[in-house]
Amino acid sequence: MGEFELIRRCFMQEQTGAGVINGIGDDCAVLEVPPGQQLVVSIDTLVEGVHFLPGTAPAQLAERLVGAAVSDLAAMAATPAWITLAVTLPQADETWLLAFSRALSQRCSELGIALVGGDTTRGPVCVLSAQVHGLVPNGQAWLRSGAVPGDRILVTGSLGDSRGGLETLLQPLPVSAEPEAVEQLRQRFYRPEPRLELAQSLREHVHAAIDISDGLLGDLGHILEASGVGARLEVDQLPVSFALQQLYPQQVQDWALAGGEDFELCLAVPAAQLSSCLDTAQALGIRLTDVGEITADTGLQVLQAGTTVLGDLPGSWDHFRSEDE
Amino acid sequence: MGEFELIRRCFMQEQTGAGVINGIGDDCAVLEVPPGQQLVVSIDTLVEGVHFLPGTAPAQLAERLVGAAVSDLAAMAATPAWITLAVTLPQADETWLLAFSRALSQRCSELGIALVGGDTTRGPVCVLSAQVHGLVPNGQAWLRSGAVPGDRILVTGSLGDSRGGLETLLQPLPVSAEPEAVEQLRQRFYRPEPRLELAQSLREHVHAAIDISDGLLGDLGHILEASGVGARLEVDQLPVSFALQQLYPQQVQDWALAGGEDFELCLAVPAAQLSSCLDTAQALGIRLTDVGEITADTGLQVLQAGTTVLGDLPGSWDHFRSEDE
Asked: For Mg(2+) 4, which residues are the binding ones (chains A, B) (predicted)?
């Protein structure tokens, strides 16, 4: 079976979705953006041996790829619309491709995003790029640049779990590790859960937003830089899971601050909207935590029990710099 | 210099373009599709050692990546709008990135497409994916599926040159090779010229279209399959360059039929529009050649001097099957 036939079999089924005039199978997909909506787009890549371990199950890769990419749409308060894929593989393994495409289709369906195009090529290692396309009412996309002094800093979910999940894959488990906790952290690593519904519900209340892919410190730093402001972060307020505390009590704080790849949202919200935002999150059953304040003084202060924690906090996730990618 | 700073320096300058509300530097770009226009998108990948030789100059890679990707927009009769990039590299080499991004910026500017986003990651070999976004008036995108019996089959430019250019890089040059001919074929390999202006000028006259990336036989085959028709191709009519004839007289026919990566257009045009289309092309100074006819009988017949050429023609470019990728 050649490339064309394989791709057709794996990816060309059930390719329908709102605004899809013409999906996979032509030189381009033809898409329709509804009046009054802007298009938001983002591209993300996963590389074998860098972002995932060789031998990772294709279904887990598909879920991680789509979840991480769609999280960028959540960070703009956008509604997912369409996704395209560039898949580079050492060989055209039918079993792998079928498992990957089945999980991809399932996860895309759950997240309301339609696969509309792709390119499959051969290469020495697996490299997966996904471009996501979302829609947002004109002028309502969240940017990083809108934070103002006095805004509260909110984060969704819990932080550091994905880094903990990775640790369970890289190192022998702690002797006291509970299997459910291990599984929970691994799921957080493999299956990012974009905070779409919450983002859409809070769309009008948020000054600035980013998704936490490089670690809270690094990503909050991007908001501060883009907005020309600073922040005070209360380290004791950071939301962490029982699972992470159970398995890695020594690393909880570092990983919550800079573990990376949690794909939670970090929001800057006017103080007057804080309780309304918290209520909305509670109604949706999503944890949303106030972890600090935007300040007029630039720079990022991390406080613990009222004291500034100085210096040696781990840096953000940097694909060309960090040692532990 | 870390990833963020490097990317900023290389890719974040002069990122403006029509419809770009917010370009590089946020979780997503924010884009505006004008009323009455549809969005067309396509993603393409180049892999080191598969689509280009290790050590290829970064400027040549940038030109090839952008040209090949934008060619898919020409094949839809679309106007280029925006491009995003996923760049995987063994290391963050500043010299490489600066040369790549400078050539990229130059070529994007020439083709009228704005860089609006990207992702840069580390990996064992260079893998480059580009997603292009174009605009086309509602309902006017060219598809592969509109060919009808009696349509003339037209191709732009000359065929087989890119394959010839690759040969000059892979094998010792023929003893009689003229340097200008070598250079001309290499340019055709490294620097695809999307037929944007011609496509936009012929937009209303064309029944079906594809760009020739896999070779004429393979790509015309896609039109036939999508349209449920067949074709007769006159091999003596295929447009070939003097340079290709000078360097590789024995391979001209095979490479014109199945060399791949020419990024010319193959069009199915109503016979009544033929002379008007040829006139338009002549006025634009672009070679456009009538090479055959769409037939009601399915299947692709290749004729030479009135006789059907049987059997052993080379197959189309297939990244997972061919031996010479």
From this structure: 27, 42, 72
Per the CB < 8 Å rule, is A84 touching B25?
Answer: no
Please say which residue of A88, A105, A137 terminates a domain: A137
β-pair partners for A39: A135, B31
Same domain, yes or no, for B22 and B98? yes
Q: Which residues of B are annotated as a binding site for substrate?
A: 51, 261, 317
Pair B295, B166 in one domain? yes
**SS3 state of residue A210:** strand
Question: Same domain for B76 and B201?
Answer: no
Q: Domain check: are B133 and B158 in the same one?
A: no
Note whether B102 and B179 are same-domain residues: no
Interchain contact, A41 vs B27, CB within 8 Å: no
Residues 6+ apart with CB under 8 A from A130: A43, A44, A65, A66, A69, A83, A84, A85, A86
A169 with A271, same domain? yes
What is the distance in angstroms between the Cα of B318 and the nearest Cα belonging to chain A?
A: 6
Cβ contact A31–B50 (<8 Å): no
Residue B210 maps to a domain: yes
- What ranges make up the beta strands (E) of chain B? 20-22, 29-31, 37-47, 79-89, 114-122, 127-137, 152-156, 208-211, 230-234, 265-269, 288-295, 299-304, 307-308
CATH number at residue B110: 3.30.1330.10
Structural domain ending residue among the three candidates B96, B112, B137: B137
How would you write the pLDDT of chain B (325 residues) with one tens digit per residue? 566 567 667 776 656 788 999 888 889 999 999 999 999 999 999 999 999 989 999 999 999 999 999 999 999 999 999 999 999 999 888 889 899 999 999 999 999 999 999 888 889 999 999 999 999 999 999 999 999 999 999 999 999 999 999 999 999 999 889 999 999 999 999 999 999 999 999 999 999 999 999 899 999 999 999 999 999 999 999 999 999 999 999 999 999 999 989 999 999 999 999 999 999 999 999 999 999 999 999 889 999 887 877 444 444 444 444 333 3
Binding residues of B for Mg(2+): 27, 42, 44, 72, 119, 211, 214
Tokens (6 digits) for A277: 């935002």
3 state SS of B199: helix
Q: Identify the domain containing residue B194 by its residue range.
A: 152-308
